[in-house]
Amino acid sequence: MAHQATIESPLHGLMAEFDSAQALLDAAHKVRSAGYTRTDAYSPMPIHGLAEALGMKERKVAPFVLAGGIAGMLAGYGLQYWTSVIAYPMNIGGRPLHSWVSFIPVTFELTILFAAFSAGISMIVLNGLPQPYHPVFNTARFSLASSSAFFLAIEATDPKFDAGQTAAFLASLHPREVVPVDH
Amino acid sequence: MDVSQKDKQDPLGALPIITPGYSYVSITDKLTALVLTKNTPTAWFVFMAVGFTLLMGLMVSLGYLLMKGIGIWGNNIPVGWAFDIINFVWWIGIGHAGTLISAILLLFKQDWRTSINRFAEAMTLFAVACAMLFPLFHTGRPWLAVYWLLPYPNVMGLWPNFRSPLIWDVFAVSTYGSVSLLFWYIGLIPDLATFRDKAAKPIVKKIYGVLAMGWRGSARHWYRYETAYLILAGLSTPLVLSVHTVVSFDFAVSNLPGWHATIFPPYFVAGAVYAGFAMVLTLAIPLRAIYKLHDFITMRHLENMAKVTLVTGLIVVYGYVCEAFFGWYSGNLYEREMLRLRMFDGYYPWAYPALLVCNFLVPQLLWIKKFRRNIAVLFTVAMFVNVGMWLERFVIIVTSLSQDFLPSSWAPYSPTRWDFMTFFGTIGLFTTLMFLFVRILPMISIFEMRTLLPEASTKSKPEGEAH
Question: CATH fold of B14-454, please?
Answer without folding.
Answer: Formate dehydrogenase/DMSO reductase fold (1.20.1630)
